[in-house]
Amino acid sequence: MISKRELSAFDHPKGATVGNVDLQAGVAYWVTPSFRVNASYRLDAYFGAIRTLDVAGNQRTIDRYFHGPRIAGTVRF
Fold this sequence. Notes:
The longest helix has 4 residues, at 4-7. Helix content is 5%, strand content 65%. It has a three-stranded antiparallel β-sheet with strand order 1-2-3, with no helix packed on it. The relative contact order is 0.26. The chain has one helix and three strands; from the N terminus they run αβββ. The chain is mainly beta. It is elongated and about 60 Å long.
């Protein structure tokens, strides 16, 4: 069972700084003069964003990554 003292590791500070990187690479192709298709891949990375406890009960910060493909179409009138 977790004691109240251990739970204090999850207290939120008054302020914090989190490093963040956003990268996106892709291509676009005009199928017709009024319709475009886009395909890209995006990475959104946060460094030191989450405070947690490891298996030994020590507090540490971990990084978090969100990434994935994206496909979109654009119509111009």
